[in-house]
Write a structure and sequence with these properties.
This protein has 481 residues and is mainly α. Helix content is 80%, strand content 0%.
């Protein structure tokens, strides 16, 4: 794809003023910074992250030269620079930038909207870093500012409610998130009308929480409504519609409709290719989704080719150590494991773990997904001496970041119980299963599929111990999930 060139006059002005400390009149300088900020966002929307990063650096240097390194303008430029670094996966640089931005903007009144924007962006970084509790606190701080400035019927406030709800969901409190989603939907309807794309975005967020609660039918209804809104307002080829098609497709997959899911995933891929070009990370994500549903239908060779394309594209556009690359490696491992290629699966998981450690640090809870997969692979291959250490690290990471009872910990507890069951040590396996069951029921509800999986495993253990009546009761409860 031919890349859009930077505007020569703007870049020349930024470079010349920075290098020579040219005395550009301050109103003109402020206008140039606003133009630079807008173009940075444009480059990001087009998937041109290197151009966005270069322009953000030049804008920062220009702001420091024209207004001073301790100026409010420099603080805003630091915020733009840090936001670009966040979006391209350079989280350490983003953290440094947001700290500097907030330090410079701290002289502003507490209810200043520019400072609130910087705080919101920092909260988005904390979300990426796997710190939902810290992000939630910052989102709430921003919400208070926006409420004071604009009142409850405002799209900025509603956006905060959605973000807070997502953090609650990540913290294993999805039932607390739903009322916030309801408020956000109502606010967007009041501000924009019932069929606006912003309403569709709020419905999409609520659907994701319903999906987390195992309410796939409710999630499907919200996703379908949002999808139809975007199709009517924006058309099927629009980028927002493509995102909704992806999410609706995932629900179709979970509901056991792989052909319908594949059709929607393909629609999303075509729309992304039309909107953002052939090498944008969105394309790679769409390829990854399409690969998953293709593999579920037994077309492993086709799925492998799609995964290879996604891997190559993400590594080229985001860098080999980006978390999204680890996600592709994780899926490659899952496909290799399903095909019985243990060696390839182990190698892919080892790479995925290394990438996550390099990009997100050794204590990020996302590492637990890879550790759980490694534990599952060890169970498959009989490498039982590895399982306990993997489960212990996974559980420690999740409980430290997300809390003791978080539903994601149930996967690790189930794996650990399966390890003891393989050893015939039912006395250690059963308490782990009952702990997992209690956490699943509390966090996800009795009807969630994961609750059913744990009940099935508990029934199998009870049957192996000769307690047929208890096993039958567990299996019947699993069927009702």
């Amino acid at each position: 794809m031919r890349r859009k060139r930077l505007r020569p006059l703007l870049i020349a002005l930024l470079l010349a003023a920075t290098q020579a400390h040219a005395a550009v009149p301050l109103p003109e300088a402020a206008t140039e910074l606003q133009q630079a900020s807008a173009q940075i966002q444009g480059f990001l929307a087009q998937g041109q992250a290197p151009h966005a990063a270069a322009l953000a650096r030049e804008a920062l240097a220009y702001a420091q030269a024209q207004f001073g390194p301790r100026s409010l303008q420099a603080g805003q430029a630091w915020s733009d620079h840090a936001e670009v670094q966040r979006l391209i996966g350079h989280l350490a640089e983003a953290t440094e930038g947001f700290v500097k931005s907030e330090e410079l903007l701290a002289k502003q009144p507490a209810n200043d909207p520019v400072l609130a924007t910087a705080h919101y962006r920092h909260a988005e970084l904390l979300r990426m870093q796997g710190k939902p509790a810290e992000a939630l606190a910052l989102y709430r701080q921003v919400e208070a500012v926006y409420l004071a400035l604009y009142g409850a019927q405002n799209s900025a406030v509603a956006t905060c409610w959605n973000a807070e709800a997502e953090m609650l969901r990540q913290l294993g409190r999805p039932s607390e998130a739903l009322p916030l989603h309801d408020k956000a939907v109502a606010a967007f309807v009041a501000v924009t009308g019932a069929r606006h794309p912003y309403v569709a975005t709020a419905l999409q967020a609520r659907a994701t929480t319903r999906q987390a609660l195992g309410d796939y039918r409710g999630a499907e209804a919200d996703f379908q409504d949002a999808y139809e809104m975007d199709v009517a307002a924006l058309g099927k080829a629009h980028q927002w519609t493509a995102t909704l098609a992806n999410n609706l497709a995932e629900i179709e997959r979970l509901l056991g409709r792989p052909q319908a899911a594949e059709k929607l995933f393909a629609e999303a891929l075509a729309a992304y290719q039309k909107n953002v070009g052939p090498s944008h990370p969105f394309i790679a994500t769409a390829l990854l989704n399409l690969a998953n549903v293709t593999a579920e239908q037994g077309r492993d060779v086709e799925a492998q080719k799609l995964l290879a394309r996604a891997h190559e594209m993400m590594a080229a556009t985001l860098g080999v150590n980006h978390p999204d690359v680890a996600t592709v490696l994780y899926q490659e491992a899952a496909l290799a494991r399903a095909r019985g290629n243990w060696q390839a699966a182990g190698a892919a998981l080892a790479k995925a773990l290394a990438v996550r450690e390099a990009s997100q640090g050794p204590t990020h809870p996302d590492l637990a997904f890879v550790l759980d997969a490694q534990a599952g692979l060890a169970l498959d291959t009989g490498a039982l001496d590895q399982v306990e250490a993997l489960c212990a690290r996974s559980l420690l990471l999740r409980e430290a970041a997300l809390g003791h009872g978080h539903p994601d910990t149930t996967t690790t507890l189930l794996l650990h119980a399966q390890y003891f069951a393989k050893l015939g040590d039912y006395d250690h396996a059963e308490p782990l299963l009952r702990d997992a069951l209690a956490r699943a029921r509390a966090g996800l509800g009795v009807a969630h599929p994961r609750t059913g999986d744990i009940l099935n495993a508990l029934g199998g253990l009870q049957y192996a111990r000769g307690d047929v009546a208890a096993a039958r009761q567990s299996w019947l409860a699993a069927l009702a999930s």
